[in-house]
Design a protein that fits this description.
258 residues; alpha/beta; Nucleotidyltransferase, domain 5; 6-stranded mixed sheet; globular
């Protein structure tokens, strides 16, 4: 499937989504204001939940469908994309990096922990790992579908952008995440050689989009995963310093220089 075949379809889906979104005021009056049995209990459980993050829902109730249609992904027609949709995210917290994705058309997920944290943790490294996991999965499927990769990281997209297009490609030399970026570039080249369409889309984080929220949960799970990827050391010198009682470590970078 080529780009000129997919993009008009996305535009049509955006129009259909906008039409569906206007149906919010046509909900049956009998359903308005009702509190069904079990909902007070569910509300109490939500209030007592220790996690600071909600659990996204992919239910089929009218309000849930209307909510999804009104999200950024919904307004873009992504829920009706004629291909595979991967929502990816990375997590960098408490000294560990995790990567995860959620695949919409198959309602499944995958995650991993990223190694080499002793050389310094990076949110961008985690985001790169998530995108690479998704591209690896698409390669295993061998179904020749176009794919969309959703990411809430502008840093990841900008670091990938320099490898797209004609002209002399940048060098991996000095790239702290060359191990992951090299895999991503090769996976994208394989797709291009096969004539397969790959679309990267930036969406906003923490705006209630179920796809982004599910990817976020699996990135968090990845920090605790026993599946550790990209862990070979670079043998670069590691510098340690203390700032306001907190010890930091990192290879040479602009922060260390200052």
């Amino acid at each position: 499937m080529k780009a000129q075949d997919v993009l008009p379809s996305l535009q049509e889906q955006m129009i259909k989504t906008e039409e569906k979104y206007t149906l919010v005021n046509r909900t049956d009056d009998k359903d308005r204001g009702e509190i069904h049995a079990g909902k007070p209990i569910a509300m109490q459980e939500a209030l007592e939940e220790e996690s600071t993050k909600d659990t996204p829902s992919f239910g089929s109730e009218n309000l849930e469908e209307i909510h999804r249609a009104g999200t950024e992904a919904g307004l873009l027609g992504i829920y009706n994309f004629p291909g595979a949709v991967y929502a990816t995210d990375g997590s960098n917290d408490k000294g560990f990096m995790g990567a995860g994705y959620f695949k919409l058309d198959e309602n499944r997920e995958r995650c991993c922990q990223l190694g080499r944290g002793e050389e310094g943790n990076s949110s961008n490294r985690a985001e790169l790992g998530a995108a690479c996991l998704a591209l690896e999965d698409a390669k295993r499927k061998r179904d020749r579908k176009p794919i969309i990769l959703l990411s809430d990281s502008a840093c990841f997209l900008s670091s990938s952008q320099k490898w797209i297009g004609e002209g002399k490609p940048p060098s991996m030399h000095g790239n702290p995440d060359a191990d992951i970026m090299g895999d991503i570039v090769q996976l994208l080249r394989d797709r291009i050689e096969q004539g397969l369409l790959t679309i990267f889309i930036k969406i906003k984080a923490y705006h209630g989009d179920p796809l982004n929220e599910l990817a976020d949960r699996w990135a968090d799970e990845g920090r605790q995963s026993e599946n550790i990827r990209w862990s070979l050391p670079t043998n670069r010198p590691i510098f340690y310093w203390t700032d306001n009682g907190t010890t930091h470590r990192s290879p040479m970078n602009p922060t260390v220089k200052t």
